[in-house]
């Protein structure tokens, strides 16, 4: 039988399993290494010397049995294995201290992030007041904000892209699946040109008094918009101009091209050449405004703190 050629087999080393090591053992080990003495380390930790010795023995056993210290007549000295362990032990302990610091920051709203979204008219007054107060109280929180209509904000909340969404009942979006934190009930105004016959009226009016007017709206249909309130008063408004952007709507009204509904949150930012008529709330306010969070998801402390400042800001805006 011919000799088989020598074959070189690469040596395979089995990766050892991660040792089951207590972080307390590592802290004790570092104290002994720092002081070079079980006795001094025990005093620093407030332990007995025998307790420190047991922790070191347990650590040595978990790491394979090699001694970590040479026991000397006076004190101890790191072995080669002990010197190898020092930087790893320091890294583990520092990581754990870092985790503890960050968790404390989260609880105390001193660190972390807040991602929220709001529908456009909430950005006119409610959100700026709340955001300014929140940043003054919690400057360590990184805040990011999105603007969008309620259905899109709820989708972003569901997928985890937002921690909180400021939403309204205008579009009829299903809100039952969310935790809702009520902020305010919002009334409506009708914006009319400054020279309109009703411009000087101080009493709330029924929308039906403007049933024959041309309306300016963000949608050609009233369903799912603020103009849905007109349907509840038994008339379908005639939308003459579809204009999405709020400042542009004001321009159309000022030019005499029609009238437009204005939510209370935007009432403070109207231009001087239009007048606002308060709409009579018949049975219920036009819409409710909520801070929504995802049901079943534990909110961070920053989210709870932001809900608090939103409620404070809502009280000022509504007042």
How would you describe this structure to a colleague?
This protein is an alpha/beta fold and 319 residues long. The chain is 36% helix and 20% strand. It contains nine helices and twelve strands. It has helices spanning 23-35, 38-45, 49-62, 80-107, 126-137, 150-158, 228-231, 246-254, 301-318, and strands spanning 69-71, 76-78, 113-118, 142-147, 164-168, 178-186, 188-193, 214-217, 238-242, 260-263, 274-278, 287-294. The strands form four sheets. The chain has a five-stranded mixed β-sheet with strand order 4-3-5-12-6, with helices on both faces. Helix 7 links the parallel strand 8 and strand 9. The longest helix is centred in the first third of the chain and has 28 residues, at 80-107. It is rod-shaped. The N and C termini lie far apart (103 Å). Residues 7-11 have low confidence and may be disordered.
Write the layout of secondary structure elements.
Blueprint: H1 23-35, H2 38-45, H3 49-62, E1 69-71, E2 76-78, H4 80-107, E3 113-118, H5 126-137, E4 142-147, H6 150-158, E5 164-168, E6 178-186, E7 188-193, E8 214-217, H7 228-231, E9 238-242, H8 246-254, E10 260-263, E11 274-278, E12 287-294, H9 301-318
Parallel strand pairs: 3-4, 3-5, 8-9
Antiparallel strand pairs: 1-2, 5-12, 6-12, 7-10, 7-11
Helix pairs in contact: 1-2, 1-3, 1-4, 2-3, 5-9
List keywords for this structure.
single chain; 319 residues; alpha/beta; five-stranded mixed β-sheet; three-stranded antiparallel β-sheet
Number of strands: 12
- Rg of Cα set: 34 Å
Q: How would you write the strand order of the largest sheet?
A: 4-3-5-12-6
Task: Give a short account of the largest sheet.
Answer: 5 strands, mixed
Cα-to-Cα separation, first versus last residue: 103 Å
* Total helical segments: 9
Global structural class: alpha/beta
Q: Could you say which overall geometry the principal axes of the C-alpha atoms support?
A: rod-shaped
The sequence of SSEs as H and E is HHHEEHEHEHEEEEHEHEEEH
Report low-confidence residues grouped into runs of 5 or more.
7-11
Percent of residues in beta strands: 15-25%
Mean pLDDT: 89
Q: Residue share in helices?
A: 25-40%
């Amino acid at each position: 039988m011919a000799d088989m050629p020598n074959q070189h087999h690469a040596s395979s080393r089995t990766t050892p399993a991660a040792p089951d090591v207590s972080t307390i053992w590592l802290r004790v080990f570092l104290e002994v290494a720092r002081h070079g003495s079980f006795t001094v380390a025990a005093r620093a930790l407030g332990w007995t010397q025998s307790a420190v010795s047991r922790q070191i023995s347990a650590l040595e056993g978990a790491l394979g049995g090699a001694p970590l210290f040479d026991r000397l007549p006076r004190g101890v000295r790191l072995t080669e294995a002990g010197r190898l362990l020092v930087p790893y032990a320091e890294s583990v302990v520092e990581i754990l201290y870092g985790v503890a610091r960050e968790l404390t920051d989260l609880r105390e709203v001193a660190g972390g992030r807040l991602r929220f979204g709001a529908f456009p008219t909430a950005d006119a007054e409610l959100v700026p007041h709340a955001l300014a107060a929140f940043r003054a109280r919690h400057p360590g929180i990184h805040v990011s904000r999105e603007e969008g209509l309620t259905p899109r904000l709820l989708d972003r909340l569901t997928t985890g892209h937002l921690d909180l969404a400021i939403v309204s009942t205008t579009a009829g979006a299903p809100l039952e699946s969310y935790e809702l934190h009520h902020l305010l009930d919002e009334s409506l105004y009708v914006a009319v040109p400054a020279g309109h016959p009703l411009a000087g009226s101080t009493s709330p009016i029924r929308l039906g008094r403007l049933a024959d007017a041309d309306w300016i709206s963000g949608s050609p249909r009233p369903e799912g918009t603020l103009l849905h309130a007109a349907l509840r008063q038994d008339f379908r408004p005639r939308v003459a101009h579809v204009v999405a952007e709020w400042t542009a709507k004001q321009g159309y009204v000022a030019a005499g091209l029609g009238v437009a509904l204005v939510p209370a949150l935007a009432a403070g930012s109207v231009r001087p050449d239009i007048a606002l008529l308060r709409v009579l709330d018949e049975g219920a306010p036009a819409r409710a405004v909520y801070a929504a969070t995802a049901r079943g998801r534990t909110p961070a402390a920053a989210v709870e703190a932001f809900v608090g400042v939103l409620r404070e800001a809502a009280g000022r805006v509504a007042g």
